[in-house]
Amino acid sequence: xxxxxxxxxxxxxxxxxxxxxxxxxxxxxxxxxxxxxxxxxxxxxxxxxxxxxxxxxxxxxxxxxxxxxxxxxxxxxxxxxxxxxxxxxxxxxxxxxxxxxxxxxxxxxxxxxxxxxxxxxxxxxxxxxxxxxxxxxxxxxxxxxxxxxxxxxxxxxxxxxxxxxxxxxxxxxxxxxxxxxxxxxxxxxxxxxxxxxxxxxxxxxxxxxxxxxxxxxxxxxxxxxxxxxxxxxxxxxxxxxxxxxxxxxxxxxxxxxxxxxxxxxxxxxxxxxxxxxxxxxxxxxxxxxxxxxxxxxxxxxxxxxxxxxxxxxxxxxxxxxxxxxxxxxxxxxxxxxxxxxxxxxxxxxxxxxxxxxxxxxxxxxxxxxxxxxxxxxxxxxxxxxxxxxxxxxxxxxxxxxxxxxxxxxxxxxxxxxxxxx
Length: 421
Known about the structure:
By secondary structure, the protein is α+β, with helices and mostly antiparallel strands. It folds into three domains: 11-80, Molybdopterin biosynthesis moea protein, domain 2; 109-333, Hypothetical protein af1432 (Orthogonal Bundle), CATH 1.10.3210; 341-416, no CATH class. 45% of the residues lie in helices and 11% in strands. The chain is built from 14 helices and eleven strands. The protein has helices at residues 45-52, 82-133, 138-158, 175-193, 198-209, 220-223, 231-237, 240-248, 256-264, 284-300, 306-316, 323-333, 382-385, 400-406, and strands at residues 11-14, 23-25, 39-41, 58-61, 163-167, 341-344, 349-356, 364-367, 379-381, 389-393, 413-416. Strands 5, 6, 7, 8, 9, 10 and 11 form a seven-stranded antiparallel beta sheet that branches. It has a four-stranded antiparallel beta sheet with strand order 1-4-2-3, with no helix packed on it. Strand 6 and strand 7 (349-356) form a beta hairpin. Helix 4 packs antiparallel against helix 5 (198-209), helix 8 (240-248) packs antiparallel against helix 9 and helix 9 (256-264) packs across helix 10. The longest helix is centred in the N-terminal third of the chain and has 52 residues, at 82-133. It is elongated, with a radius of gyration of 26 Å. Mean pLDDT is 86; it is low at 1-8.
């Protein structure tokens, strides 16, 4: 059975046969009716009368999602009297105004998201540029990195309420740059969540940005290899923290705390890392980046969905990471992190786009609706819509049309909103 109710399937019936509890799908575009969705469960006789006043003769109901069957043939709906009609007109106007408000809210949200993606692309371009210079002009590269991290720190500390957005896939194909920026952004967000001072956030950012810089000395055919590495290749790859320190050693004023992050980002609190460091031997800043690096690797190298990546860290690898940091990461990302494909309480399917730290159970979700063009897809605030998330869905289980519409990211990357609209 399909995970997504198809509004073109079900039973076509006369509007006169509708009754409360039927799950109805209207044969109209989203802007052609006053309801928030084109498919929904009828909750009142008023809604049925509003459907009748749209001039529709036939609608589709979906029995599997309905609480009651339609009325038997020949049993007609009583006509609303004049007083009810006036009330309905007022209610219809109220619904239209609410819908217009939601459309304006959606337009503002899209502008915020576009600004967020613009900031992400600009930061990615800066990372690409400085990594191109790190071996030939290290002083310039480190100076540019400090400017980037200082600006991000200032932006982070200037917002009262943290909103984390999912941003589009990068098309440059360089996973090192993409990964480095992503780990840097999330590590700085977690450092802020831990209420660390600005200087510590900057050090976390610098260490995270350069944590994998030693991979520039690893042959590209090894970095791009998709099958398991041979033992010699594993040994060479394990040297990338040392290579990174050597590169950064060319700059005398690179922060010492950031160097520790580069050196020890594959160490775990239980001592199972390559050097066997454990507990207090790992400083708190390194512990933050180690956790974020592992989360990002689970999402990308192991292709886990964000929800499963967080669950894996919490359920199976809790002893390797700082418990407070792990709890704060879950609070920061939300129970359903941006990038998760979810089924809502009304049966619709969507992609989590943003999470607000103050309302973790009610993220903003882009909803699949084949009547709405993909570029105009509704992004709804679950709290305002009175909906909840019923479950998480593996993207590969989506029907092809839904997968194409939602466009689940192959590389999950995040950026933060810089200020309130």
